[in-house]
C-alpha cells in the first residue's frame, strides 16, 4: 500500500466561490485536538525533517502548494499538495519533509494530539532505530 494516502475533500462552493468543510470523525478519521497553519515560508526553505511517535495528522494546502516527502524507513514517496481538495493523511512513525513552498502557500494541519515535543523524533537514524523496535 502506498505511503501517500489522500482524502478527496468535497467542494461545497457555488457561484460565489469555494467552500470545503472538514469534520472530526467523518472526513478526518480521528478526533481533532489541535489545528495549526504554516504560512509565509521563505523561498528555498524546507521544513519538517522529523517523525512523530503517536501523532496522526491531515495536511491541506488551502492556498498555494508544497511538496511532501513521506518515509516509513523502508519506502520514500512524495506528493504535491496543490489543491484545497487534497487532504494528506500523515500516520504516526512517518518521517516527513516539506519542500518547494510557493509564496502564497498556507499549509493547514489538523492534529490528533496536543503539541508535545516529546512525541517528535528529529533525528533520522533514531527514527530508523525506533521503527525497527516496533
Ligand atoms: C509536522 C509538520 C507538518 C508549537 O509550539 N506548537 C505547535 O503546535 C507546533 C506545530 C509547533 N510548535 C513550535 C515548535 C517549534 O519551536 O513551533 C516551532 C516550529 O515547529 P517545527 O520546527 O516542528 O515546524 P515544522 O514546520 O518543521 O513541522 C510542523 C509540525 O511541528 C510537525 O508536527 O508534522 O509541521
UniProtKB/TrEMBL annotation:
Q: Which InterPro entries match?
A: QdtA_cupin_dom (IPR008894), RmlC-like_jellyroll (IPR014710), RmlC_Cupin_sf (IPR011051)
The Sugar 3,4-ketoisomerase QdtA cupin domain is annotated at 4-130
One Pfam family here: FdtA
Q: Which CDD domains match?
A: cupin_QdtA-like
Which superkingdom heads the taxonomic lineage of this protein's source? Bacteria
- Its signal peptide is none
Q: What is this protein called?
A: WxcM-like, C-terminal
Amino acid at each position: 500500500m502506498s505511503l501517500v494516502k489522500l482524502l478527496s475533500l468535497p467542494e461545497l462552493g457555488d457561484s460565489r466561490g469555494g467552500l470545503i468543510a472538514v469534520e472530526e470523525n467523518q472526513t478526518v478519521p480521528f478526533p481533532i485536538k489541535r489545528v495549526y497553519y504554516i504560512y509565509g515560508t521563505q523561498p528555498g526553505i524546507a521544513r519538517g525533517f522529523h517523525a512523530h511517535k503517536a501523532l496522526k495528522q491531515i495536511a491541506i494546502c488551502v492556498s498555494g502548494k508544497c511538496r511532501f516527502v513521506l518515509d516509513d524507513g523502508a519506502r520514500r514517496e512524495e506528493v504535491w499538495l496543490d489543491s484545497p481538495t487534497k487532504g494528506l493523511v500523515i500516520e504516526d512513525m512517518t518521517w516527513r519533509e516539506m519542500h518547494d513552498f510557493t509564496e502564497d502557500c498556507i499549509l493547514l494541519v489538523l492534529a490528533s494530539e496536543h503539541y508535545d515535543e516529546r512525541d517528535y523524533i528529529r533525528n533520522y537514524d533514531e527514527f530508523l532505530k525506533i521503527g525497527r523496535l516496533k
